[in-house]
Amino acid sequence: MKSWTDLETIQPVAVKMLMNSLVKNRLAHAYLFHGPRGTGKKDAAKLLAKSFFCLNRNGAEPCHKCRECSRIHSGNHPDVHWIEPDGQSIKKDQILHLQKEFTYTGLESNKKVYVIHEADTMTVNASNRLLKFLEEPGKQTVAILLTENSQSILNTIRSRCQIIAFQSLSARERQKQLMEKGIPESTARICSTLTSSVDEAISLSEDDWFAKARKLVIKLIEVLHEQQNEAYLFIHKQWLGHFKNRDQLSLGLDLLLIWYKDFIQYQIGREQAIVYDHENVRFEKYAFHISMQKATESLTNILDAKRRLMANVHSTLVMEQLVLQLQR
């Protein structure tokens, strides 16, 4: 259960602004929380709703124990509405339904909060309908829009919101949080490099599929540089059988990218920046036949493979071409 104090350790500026507004009873009628995934936007929205409704609030901090806090925490408060994308987008009908809900008197007070998650996915019609809603705010209504891409929000909507920026956590901060949860340092370092979300990093660290993925990436490195004749067979026999969809293959390419970045860090003497800290022996071994230019070209090749994958090029073709490029 997160408190404002907990969240302040990773988002001091955003939390300070919100806490000051709560203490002074000067909440805006609409907020736009923007920032990368995993930076605490949803936690902040839930805390703001709790503080708004809490029966025993202490300054800005909700008690987390009263009936109002408990129902918000469980997602069952009748006057707190969460809007999520319906498929790939938030549609006009969802905003119309929200407006209809808000025409009714609150079940226990006139306070109402609505949170629109992934607000940048709103269709044009949904955005226009929301704009009309924002133009006539209720006195005790708070709107909270969450997005990773604030530039996709209509300027007319942005202008009616108080914009709160949520900054990315550094990989070091994420690693520290993971290690505090008992995750081994080497695993915490890799997982915190792959994602900006602590929760996602924890899920990766506990995933047997991910553990095998890491081993396959190291095996691919060995095959590429020690058993080149086996590379094509390895891709078809082992790699593609494990990385079965686009997201999985993209993650595998990210792991491969990290290895080559680490090789360059090793070559220029920045061992403290290395993620694969158990690979130093292999870095030293391959330093004799992988030049800095070749390592840099490999990074470019892997990034290009990721772009082709996102452009829906078949995964088999992407990997076959990449292997040929990495072997040159």
TrEMBL record:
Coiled coil: none annotated. GO terms for biological process: DNA-templated DNA replication. It comes from Melghiribacillus thermohalophilus. This is DNA polymerase III delta prime subunit. Gene3D superfamilies: P-loop containing nucleotide triphosphate hydrolases. GO terms for molecular function: 3'-5' exonuclease activity; DNA-directed DNA polymerase activity. It comes from the Bacteria.
